[in-house]
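Thread: Newbie trying to understand structure tokens

Hi all, I'm a second-year student working on a class project, and my supervisor (Dr. K.) asked me to get a predicted structure for one chain before our next meeting. I've only ever worked with sequences, so writing a 3D structure as a token string is new to me. If someone could post the tokens and maybe explain what I'm looking at, I'd be very grateful. Here's the chain:
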Amino acid sequence: MTKPTLPKHARLPINRCNLPAVILGSQYFQYYPEPLVLDGITTLHAQLFESLDKIEDISERAENFKDYMRSSFLLDNLDEVGLVNNKTKKGRDRADYLRMLRGWLFDPNSKEAAVLKSWVESRFGLIPRNHNGPLGDFSNGDYSHNYMTYIADRSQGLYNTNALEAQLDLLFSFCQYEILRCMPAQTHLTLYRGTNRINEYEILNRRHKHHYTLLLNNLNSFTSQRERADEFGDYILQAQIPLSKILYKPGLLPGSLKGEDEYLVIGGVYEVEMSVF
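---
Reply by user tm_fold:
Sure, no problem. This is what the structure looks like when written as tokens:
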């Protein structure tokens, strides 16, 4: 069995979690995943997870998490962290973790999406591969127009925000906590993604007609509903997704996001099966 590793142009030499990008982004990791733990979370936010351990109801745990986020980052009192909403700042002080999720669900090439891709790059060392089009290999300093657009969107998305990347650290950690608590014996989910052309992806290997090894973007939308994936393309990509690479799952924060049924999956190298719906 061929296990392509993560290409050099798709990874950073350092990151902020317990495994390097070359491992967590590899195809081998897809087969044999391990927990991914971000630096400092268990130490800095032990109080949150100790309180969650005492709550049996999943909805109550979600409310507890949202309350913790509001109090830790003063989301309801932004003037106390030096942010004042006014016309010149275009409300960027309200750009919290929920707005980033809403922005992604509305448009995975939005400024909010650029912030999420940048967060994945920083925390996991996986360089984004697509933002309003392919970003190319810029390791030699040859920056494409798409890459410069990504940099601009990322900068604008992070400007005048309140510890936004730290908020996303906790979102990921809470999602992983809930997955481990609700599915302790499970390691993977079968998820689907619609596409119109397999050539939209970076193909690393093709075992036979319907099985590909792809380098996915560093953050991707998947769904657990095959018929839902068909709405986004004529072909369906089916993949075994490690639970440890899920940033957000449907129902994680009940009542906070309307009409969402997407999984946000951290990228890397994946074996997928392609079929027509």
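A couple of things are worth pointing out once you decode it. The two ends are 27 Å apart (CA to CA). The chain has two domains: 8-182, 188-276. Feel free to ask follow-ups in this thread.
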